[in-house]
Design goal:
Blueprint lengths: L2 H14 L1 E4 L5 H16 L13 E5 L4 H6 L3 H10 L5 E2 L2 E7 L6 E4 L17 E7 L10 E3 L40 E3 L6 E5 L4 E3 L8 E9 L15 H4 L20
Antiparallel strand pairs: 1-9, 2-4, 3-11, 4-11, 5-10, 6-9, 6-11, 7-8, 7-10
């Protein structure tokens, strides 16, 4: 992408907590991933407590050549470099997630687990997800849904949500009015297969149910950057709590936003 497009995309990510990079994966490689994920899904029994995630299959790169190829996919890392995100590194595994045909929605949540850490106020992302959708996505089949800016700004929904995933949200009823409700600030992020969706772990996101007869599959890869450096592109103010954050500091993990996340 051009330097101008890269800056525009990065600025969108910093401000809104997500961005889309189009045409990252070729059709041939998409088909490889479709074939491999369908093979894995066929041999997998969906756990009852993961119904809102659909199929939820953790895969290590060393166990499957297609996943190793994805986590080494040069166009993805070239795009990250162009955005200034070249210091993000894969954890070496992915999660295959689906919306099964006519499957239920995914509840509102965020995936940051360090709300007691001063890094919470970082103006730049520290942990991001890379979503590779294997088919075109729309609101009808459960595309990503985001509340922009909620990685930096507390809204009433933050204090109304059941804590994410295994800490409670997996066990709620599908008619929960808050966890599955609409928000006036929400936006849908439909994409074409072959695009790459980046998201800040702190941003509130969800997905509607799949109202179609076809499975909607994505491969999710988490990436992290160093906790003790400032990105090269950042020329703004560095929050004092981050500037003074001790490198050997220890902070109790938490999925629940604390005092660092302000309105």
């Amino acid at each position: 992408m051009t330097p101008e497009k890269a800056k525009e995309t990065r600025d969108h990510m910093l401000q809104n907590g997500y961005c889309v990079i189009e045409d990252v994966v070729t059709e041939d490689f998409l088909q490889e991933m479709r074939d491999e994920t369908e093979r894995l899904i066929a041999n997998h029994e969906e756990p009852a407590d993961l119904v809102y995630q659909g199929q939820h299959i953790g895969v290590k790169r060393e166990d499957y050549s297609v996943i190793d190829k994805l986590l080494s996919w040069e166009p993805s890392y070239r795009a990250l470099d162009e955005l200034g995100f070249g210091d993000f590194k894969t954890g070496g595994s992915v999660i295959i997630l689906t919306k099964e045909p006519h499957g239920p929605p995914l509840y509102w949540h965020q995936d940051w687990m360090q709300w007691n850490d001063p890094l919470t106020v970082s103006p730049w992302p520290q942990i991001i997800f890379l979503n590779y959708y294997l088919t075109d996505t729309t609101p009808e089949n459960g595309c990503l849904k985001v509340i922009p800016g909620t990685h930096h700004r507390r809204i009433p929904l933050h204090d109304q949500l059941v804590p994410a995933h295994e800490q409670g949200a997996r066990f709620i009823e599908e008619d929960h009015p808050i966890m599955f409700g609409d928000d006036p600030e929400q936006v849908y992020v439909p994409v074409k297969a072959g695009s790459l969706v980046l998201g800040d772990a702190r941003v509130l996101h969800s997905a509607d149910g799949n109202k179609t007869d076809d499975r909607r599959t994505l491969i999710l890869a988490w990436h992290r950057r160093p906790t003790d450096t400032v990105p090269d592109y950042w020329d703004g103010e560095i929050p004092e709590v981050i500037a003074n954050r001790p490198e050997d500091g220890e902070y109790e993990g938490s999925r629940i936003p604390g005092a660092y996340l302000k309105p």
